[in-house]
Specification:
By secondary structure, the protein is mainly α. Helices cover 53% and strands 12% of the residues. Helix 3 packs across helix 4.
């Protein structure tokens, strides 16, 4: 059996992280029955719309959820094919053994920045004033956006609102640091990392 490469390991890790959160699991269960809007999910789960948007952003990032515009709202649905494919890949003989290698850790100072500025629910206590610390936080926020996915400014705002109410600053900083790009009409996308 050929070992999983780093990209495949990361993909499985992000898949497990997506399923490890109770709120995300509830969202997936609801979407398994029907497509729903952020507002419908918010009402069904008694969570803020910004929190739902944050979770949906991560679920879209790993490919478990997709969205389609219907009128004024995005309707989200479960991508059951992705769920089945990931489960099949995971259960292939030998793959689980390759996942036991230690994951490269963040430097201690970056872990400390995240611990200092993030609350237990993942939201920001404040936006760091120092540039180096702000870059660590922005790298963290960037993970909520899926590579190859285009987002309207309203979608970006909803996702960033789960982290901090000053979405304009976070949006501007993500673009300024080259972590996201913006097109004239207000369309945003995550910039792919270069090694």
């Amino acid at each position: 059996m050929k070992p999983l490469n780093d990209d495949q390991n990361l993909e499985l890790l992000e898949f497990f992280k997506a399923l490890a959160d109770p709120s995300r699991l509830k969202i997936l269960c609801l979407l398994a029955n029907q497509s729903m809007t952020v507002e419908q999910l918010s009402e069904a789960l008694d969570l803020r719309a910004s929190t739902i948007s944050h979770h949906l952003g991560y679920l879209r990032h790993v490919g478990l959820v997709s969205a389609s515009a219907q009128g004024w709202y995005n309707h989200y649905r479960l991508e059951s094919d992705t769920l089945q494919q990931m489960t099949r890949r995971l259960l292939e003989p030998g793959h689980l053994g390759y996942l036991t290698a230690p994951e490269p850790a963040l430097p201690n100072w970056e872990r400390q920045v995240l611990a200092d500025f993030l609350r237990p629910d993942g939201s920001l206590r404040e936006i760091p004033a120092r540039r180096k610390k702000r870059q660590v936080i922005l790298q963290h926020l960037r993970q909520a956006f899926q590579v190859g996915q285009r987002y309207s400014e309203a979608e970006v705002n909803r996702m960033l609102e789960a982290f901090h109410p000053d979405t304009a600053t976070l949006r501007r900083e993500l673009v300024g640091e080259g972590l996201m790009a913006r097109q004239g009409g207000g369309e945003y996308w995550r910039v792919e990392e270069t090694k």
